[in-house]
Amino acid sequence: MNGKHIITAVLALFLPFGAQLAAQTYGSDRYNVSAYANYGYNTSWKNYGGLDVRGFLPLAKHFEMIANAEMLTSGVFSASVTARPKFKLPVGEIFIDGTVNARSLFRYSTAELVLAASAGYRMDYISVQAGLFYRGIFDTGKSSGGSYVGEKPIDAVYRVAFNVRPISSRWNVGGGITNFDEYEYERMWQPMFFIDGHYDLNDRLTVLSCIKVKQAGMFHQIVSFYGIDVKCGVSYRF
After folding, report:
1. Backbone dihedral region of 46: left (phi > 0), alpha (psi from -120 to 50 degrees) or beta?
2. Beta partners for 94?
3. CB 31 within 8 A of CB 69
4. CA 115, CA 122: separation in Å to the nearest integer?
5. C-alpha distance from residue 2 to each of 6, 9, 112, 142, 223 (Å)
6. Contact, 122 vs 106, CB < 8 A?
7. CA separation (Å) from 180 to 59, 90, 105, 129?
8. Are 151 and 220 in contact (CB under 8 A)?
């Protein structure tokens, strides 16, 4: 089985899972599904749009699953699943993320598979997360026969985020710095900056938004040196 078949199989597994589950809402104890409309621009793909579906499923008091799937008009299809044990502390909460992330970039006849593990701590106003990831690159072009290259060495992931209000607030605004999100993993010296927010319309329905900026630089795995990504969506709690 070549790299193209492997990535196709992984995406086929994740996409239905992401559609049935549901937004990465830390601290929630209810099933949650969200959908975003996506607009972005970068130096590789220029203008693009897309659809982002996310899922959150609390399976037990100390364990939850998160699934994500994204389709972009630039020919990029991504999916990920995260398993998260979590433990309450007198102040805040610690959690451990284990993630499998797959992306297919048809324009470049390339696909990638990421395995990541990290630990984090969050309170009402700030959260921090750090860990490691490994990425395998598949050349899915017909002439390559599905060749595979693993990046070495293993790289680091990190995320520092803040909120202006407690997590349980009806509305909130926050932001931070990271080198990964639900679909992209950058090398540790290539940070992304983001601002996000939400507003609860009622007990079940929430409006969501996020703006992400990727700095200019070199050595991106898939070169898109500078980019901005805007997402607006809604979330429904069961």
Report:
1. left
2. 87, 121
3. no
4. 23
5. 6, 11, 13, 11, 24
6. no
7. 25, 29, 17, 11
8. no
- Across 133-138, average pLDDT: 89
Write the secondary structure of 139-180 as one string of H (helix), E (strand) and C (coil): ECCCCCCCEEEECCCCEEEEEEEEECCCCCCCEEEEEEEECE
DSSP state, residue 222: S
Q: 221-234: buried (b, 16+ CB within 10 Å) or exposed (e) per residue?
A: bbebeebebbbebb
Q: Are 203 and 235 in contact (CB under 8 A)?
A: no
Tell me which amino acid residue 73 is.
Answer: T
Strand partners, 88: 93
Q: Choose the weakest-confidence range: 69-73, 122-126, 135-139, 231-235.
A: 135-139
The pLDDT confidence band at residue 33, using thresholds 50, 70 and 90, is: very high
Mean pLDDT of 113-135: 95
In degrees to the nearest 10, what's the CA dihedral of 119, 188, 105, 218? 170
111 touches 138 (CB < 8 A): yes
pLDDT of 144 strictly over 50:
yes
pLDDT at residue 147 above 90? no
Q: Taking the model in full, what pTM does it have?
A: 0.82
pLDDT confidence of 168, banded at 50, 70, 90?
Answer: confident
